[in-house]
Structure prediction request, 160 residues.
Amino acid sequence: MVSVTLRLTVNGRPLERTVSARRSLAEFLREDLGLTGTHLGCEHGVCGACTVLVDGRSARSCLLLAAQVDGATVTTIEGLTPGDGLSPLQAAFRDCAALQCGFCTPGMIVTAHELLAEDRAPTRDVIREALSGNLCMCTGYVNIVRAVERAAAVLRGERA
Ligand code: FES
Ligand code: FES
Prediction:
């Protein structure tokens, strides 16, 4: 087995780990680091459940090898969760009933986080476009889009 030694930052913590060169980033996060908020659905880059931020940009952790993020900064849903309480996006998902089984929710929130980091006032169409690569089998998306609108309003200081 070929191994590689990685140095990276995950959720603000610098780490060094030796992993198989074939280990996916999703497996590395879930199994080696215990960050199971990153969900694995299709494992083929289709569903978006495994979305994380790599150097601030959303990426499908099932399609990346851990070796490819050597030197990078990775943020998972755990890293977007305050030590106490919920982030505005998480609270909005709860308040708008934007989740049912919750399997897609971490990927939805990571993707929406990336959007709101760039655009605090996205239109409904922009939100739908941003989330179009994240599949949800439960909700019909209406409440998910509302939740992102609500979180955007909170981040603009328009709602408590
Ligand atoms: S598990 Fe990665 S896109 Fe579906
Ligand atoms: S809430 Fe179940 S898949 Fe989206």
